[in-house]
Amino acid sequence: xxxxxxxxxxxxxxxxxxxxxFVVGGASFFAAIAVLxxxxxxRQASFAAGYVVLGWLMxxxxxxxxxxxxxxxxxxxxxxxxxxxxLLPPTTPVDVRV
Length: 98
Prior knowledge:
By secondary structure, the protein is mostly helical. 62% of the residues lie in helices and 0% in strands.
């Protein structure tokens, strides 16, 4: 049993690691691709990814408490990311004329 997971519903870190990699990482990766490709929904994808990361951090703090000195930095980075998302242009219709 992992020391950090003591007292949480998870005995081994496999389930939280898979969730972190595919859900949190996947949302962030998809949002990054959307922003770089300048897709019309990039702003919404970025907000969604930011809220997924924020939710992960809140769940982590609720389940295991303050376990790492990096947690406050992750929270600051997540809030900064959400604030910077406001600088992205709002959704505009895509011009599909041929």
